[in-house]
Amino acid sequence: MIQLIRGFKDILPGEVELWQHIEKTAAGLFEQFGFQEIRLPIMEHTELFARSIGQDTDIVEKEMYTFPDRKGALVTLRPEATASVVRSYIQHKMYATDPVQKLYTIGPMFRRERPQKGRYRQFYQINAEVFGIDSPLIDAQLIFMLSALFTRLSILDTSVHINSLGCPACRPDFKKALSLFLADVKEKLCPDCIRRHGQNPLRVLDCKVPSCRESIVGAPSLGDFLCDHCRRHFATVTRSLEGLDVPFVIDGKLVRGLDYYSRTTFEVRTEALGAQNAVAGGGRYDGLVKALGGPDIPGIGFAIGFDRLTEVTGLKGKDFVKKPDVFVAALGEKSMALALEWVCALGLEGLVVEMGAGEKSLKSQMKRADRLGARHVLIVGEKELAEKTAILRNMATKVQSALPMDHIVKNVIENINSAHP
Ligand code: HAM
Questions:
Q1: Which residues have C-beta atoms less than 6 Å from ligand 1?
Q2: Nearest alpha carbon, ligand 1 atom 4
Q3: Cα–Cα separations (whole angstroms), residue 269 to 68, 159, 335, 389
Q4: Is residue 131 very low, low, confident or very high in pLDDT (cuts 50, 70, 90)?
Q5: Is residue 211 situated within a structural domain?
Q6: Nearest ligand 1 atom to alpha carbon 304
Q7: pLDDT digit string, tens, across residues 284-336
Q8: How far from chain centre, in Å, is Cα 16?
């Protein structure tokens, strides 16, 4: 039998209802905060990711699904969505009508990492991106919105970690200091980090190799190198978060695994996930729109690991599975023809409907109705045909009413509504 690809997964009925619930909750909340949905392709020119995420990152160096298309052009299954959102913002000149755009997108991403719990090769993200706002107040608002989503999804044991990565004015000084520090511990670094140390020392700070993690313990902290502008920006973010009652910890080592960040960066972590403890991450990317060929417009956003969300929320997919309002149980050819008509008409009226699937007896149909959790069963057999009625049974109270077949749809709806006004 052909199995699915390692690191990929099916989301089955019974689970998918939880995904739908999370999607609806996120979309509803984001729209309240002025976001609009954008849907983007899952494949882009490889260069888009190499130039935005950065050549020396784990993602670009080791994890992308990149291959030549049939004409030889290199294409990549997107490892993240921010680069594509930025590309689209520039390509469609969204800034021409209003530089301020708030966009969200939900969909699959692809990274060829080593699969384990919470880490997949096809995984899903919920992204929110804001363009055109320099003010630190938007940084705080985004983090607030993210925390509010976790609360709405009953995910309570999370912590927000934030840092500032500085800007092109102050980061070079930090890089220099870090480089000097790393030169002293060079022999303990992994081969990748030895190479990165020269080109992009910040990347050493997010290397996952244990010996590298140990070596950077006493490394200089970004916070000590921020210019006045970045320092003020960060102070307003933290002050605003305090004002909004969003708890956070400042984490001077948080550099995030992508090159495009500047100033505010953040991550939401939870203890419930073991090693893969980040449920969301984001930050400012003020230089990215320009670097990808657009005007000099700032950006900030985050992505939530959708798979990880479903693993940490106490909510269960089965609690969102829709149960039939009415199950029509019919015996005999004539009754079954009526059942089909009624089910179709009741469905159009907005009820969740189901009917017998060819079971031989009324008893087996009742059993199935019960298993599906049907609220009512509408029964029609020879006797009911003769009397031109159908029996509506309330499965909770066991009360049965004989309803005239004339205007049966109206009769059923009235009966149900009077039982549950
Ligand atoms: P990221 O930190 O690479 O950031 O990913 C965001 C989240 O996606 C992670 O915190 C994690 O929950 C989830 N995630 C990442 N890789 C995997 C995986 N292999 N399996 C399951 N979940 C995973 C970004 O992607 C940035 N684009 C975020 C951003 C948006 N920054 C600004 N705007």
A1: 80, 82, 111, 113, 118-120, 123, 125, 127, 129, 257-258, 278-283, 301-303, 305, 307-308
A2: 281
A3: 37, 5, 57, 59
A4: very high
A5: no
A6: 7
A7: 999 999 999 999 999 999 999 999 999 999 899 999 999 999 999 999 999 99
A8: 13
- Domain containing 260 equals 16-170+226-318
The residue whose CA is least distant from atom 1 of ligand 1 is 281
Inside any domain, residue 198:
no
What's the gap in Å between 16 CA and the centre of ligand 1?
Answer: 21
The answer to the question of residue 78 being in a domain is: yes
Look up the pTM and report it.
Answer: 0.93
The pLDDT score that the predictor gives to residue 420 is 63
C-alpha 260 – ligand 1 centre gap (Å): 14
pLDDT in tens, 29-61: 999 999 999 999 999 999 999 999 999 888 999
Summarize pLDDT for 47-96 with one digit per residue, the tens: 999 999 999 888 999 999 999 999 999 999 999 999 999 999 999 999 99
187 CB burial (10 A radius; 0-12, 13-18, 19+): exposed
Counts for the chain of helices (H) and strands (E), in that order: 16, 16
390 and 378 assigned to the same domain: yes
List Cβ neighbours of 91 (8 Å cut-off, separation of 6 or more): none
Residues 333 and 349 grouped into a single domain: yes
